[in-house]
Amino acid sequence: MASPKAPSSPSPSPKRPAGATLLRLKFQWPLSFSVAEPATEFDCLAPEGQKLAGISYSTATLVAQFTDGSYAYREGGGYSWSQALPLSQYIDPVKYPLQCVSGGSLHFAGVTKKGRVVSSISRGGEKAAKLLDVPPGELPAVAVVAGAHHVAALNEAGRLMVWSVEDNYSANGAVAGFTAVQVGAMPLPAGPTGQVVVAGAPRVWRHPAVMQGRVRVTAMSAGVTHTLIGLSDGNVWVAGIKASERFSRNCGISTIYSKDVQQVKLPVKARTVTHVAAGDSDVCVVATNAGVVCWKDDRTTYNFNESTGWSATYAPAPRHLPELDGVEIKQLAVSNAYHMVAALAVDGRIFTWCVALSEKSWPADWLRPGLAVTVPGATAIGWAERDLYVTVPEGMGPEVVKLAAARPDKSA
Question: Where are the domains of the chain?
Answer without folding.
Answer: 90-204
